[in-house]
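Re: Re: ligand-bound prediction request (bumping)

Still looking for help on this. To restate: I need the protein modeled with KG4 bound, output as structure tokens. Inputs repeated here so nobody has to scroll up.
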Amino acid sequence: MIILGIETSCDDTCIAIYDTKSGLITTKKYTQTIHTIFGGVIPKFSSFYHLNKIIPIIKSLFFNFQIHTTTINAIAYTAGPGLYQSLLIGAYIAYSISYTLKLPILGINHLEGHIFSAMINKKKPDFPFICLLISGGNTQLIDVQNIGHYKILGESKDVSLGETFDKIAKVLKLYYPGGVRLSHLACFGKIKKQNFPKILRNNITFSFSGLKTYILNYLKQFKYTNKYQYKANLAKSFEEYVLNMLSYKCYKALINYGRSCLLISGGVSANKTLRKHFYLFFKNKLNNFQITFPDQVLCTDNAAMIAYVGALRLTSGEKITNKLLIRPTWCLEELKYPLF
Ligand code: KG4
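Reply:
Sorry for the wait, this slipped through. Here it is.
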């Protein structure tokens, strides 16, 4: 079965083609750089660029990989959560193609996509496992019992981890989206003692908003704020603090729920220091924990994960309704197992 995947939940226009026999055929992304000027995503620009880019990207993939439209068996698109205007473009395009080619169509939950992104072209972890989902929109610890069976064990009470990276990067005068730049800057820094707010240490929920405020106030007190080394040390101390807190909470979740596998996905999981930190942290534990990450290119938003979940659901017997569905807010716990 060959699935065309479409993802337009925020500011990346993404298309992928996935084959259940041979795996991922291709995946392509257009990142809208216009938002850099504003330091954040502007929804009306986001939908405008999706509308302009989506058809040329689909055409180029079909042309470059010599794929004929008759070989596609189904379409999977992101139905939510995400920006309403952006989701609408992806849904309408998916629906139009499905109507013209008379193909089944499936609206996929973006967060479910992130969870399963770590399984594309890789050895799959056994269910049940714990997923730490750290993206631009979400920070959640999820007990994944099976596809469509999710229990949220803990989540951020305020901003997500990705947004925190971006906001602190902005405070340090790095360009948007700053997460990756902040992490790069941290590579040149040294850990200095900081009195970061001691946040929710004893449970598995998260809160990050205090960190940005702390750094903002801290910078105001000093006149050296523009010194490169000073900023790098602050970035390194922040990253180290967050990684210690994350790994500790994941360990707690694994122990409390008796799971042996941890899957980490979402944009922030692309962070190389984070990957090293988690491997080292769990290497020193007595239990034999298995740690899994998506391929680096599949951490941030992509359509491969949408096509892949579409394939999983269709091959598990999901009923096709061919209804146009958009859900800007859509909690994982509302999802169902495909057969029901
Ligand atoms: O998964 P994603 O594309 O967005 C949502 O689905 O919400 O994640 C984007 C987020 C951004 O906040 C970006 O700054 C962050 O992931 N990010 C990183 C890194 N690469 C992307 N944060 C820290 N270190 C990185 N290397």
